[in-house]
Amino acid sequence: MQTAISSTEAVRNFSELLNNIKYRGDRYTVIHDGKPVASLVPVEPVGSGATLADLRKIVQAFPHLDGSDISFEADVIAVASLQLSTPKALS
To answer: In Å, what is the CA distance from 30 to each residue of 8, 19, 39?
Structure first.
């Protein structure tokens, strides 16, 4: 999402804007004298490249529980059954 900000606001909050751009991927259009004059955008895509769908694979790769962990396993399965399904990856 592109957010319009005044040049004064950009100057006063420049460090915060850079952090928002770097870590969240925010985009800004700087307005000066009522007109857009610049865009502040990330140079590189934000994110690690991992998705929620990858989490399922990671968890499945964990070591399996042995017989002494039956109650713990039952608790984990019960809680997992209450979780929402992971969204499909956007392409």
So the answer is: 9, 16, 6
Do residue 63 and residue 36 come from a single domain? no
Q: Would residue 86 count as lying in a domain? A: no
What tokens were used for 79?
A: 């809680």
47 in a structural domain: no
pLDDT of 90 > 80? The answer is no
CA distance 86 to 51: 9
| Paired strand residues for 35 | 32
> What separation in angstroms does the CA of 73 have from each of 1, 18, 65, 68, 76?
42, 44, 7, 10, 5
Look up tokens 């990856």; give the residue.
89
pTM, to two decimals: 0.50
